[in-house]
Amino acid sequence: GAVVSQHPSRVICKSGTSVKIECRSLDFQATTMFWYRQFPKQSLMLMATSNEGSKATYEQGVEKDKFLINHASLTLSTLTVTSAHPEDSSFYICSAREGGTSYEQYFGPGTRLTVT
Amino acid sequence: AQSVTQPDIHITVSEGASLELRCNYSYGATPYLFWYVQSPGQGLQLLLKYFSGDTLVQGIKGFEAEFKRSQSSFNLRKPSVHWSDAAEYFCAVGRRGDYKLSFGAGTTVTVRA
Fold it and tell me: Which of B39, B45, B60, B99 to mutate to probe the A interface, most A CBs <10 Å?
């Protein structure tokens, strides 16, 4: 149980275009989803927290207009990188939390974004 | 604010030898603590967690961790490593209320034959 999927696993896009990454909780309802960014050989940096049906909360320094997050249902959150540039190339990982008082997050397999 | 320190960037261990990964945290209240493992190009898999109770926690794949409040530590151990244990290991502390996790920088484990 507690499986989180991400799609696509890899994406290459041209500079200036937008790309959408989906995060789905397959066998549970996710009250909260988190989006992380991970640079090579580094730790995970929390970008934003999204709760179903409400606006995402972004961490300091993360551009909310560049990284659009939508949590439209209890099983789906999307991250759209708008007007992507090469510096947005990274490994993006989502996680999901069931809700209540649970602190456990279930992580997706990640999406490798390359902007050319 | 909470923070996590993993002092060892890289550890090399022989197959069959024991492994210990260090984790120190800074948090003003009782912490929620986690260890995750990440294989190259993959997401994170939870090894074990500590919320309360017994300070020695058993996890998957033969791992265990011990919470020591006096030392603000949550070190991960495995008595005998397998080649498949080669991966990146992250310690994380959970913040009460907003459920966010703060991760340490990670420790890369290399297993030699």
Answer: B99
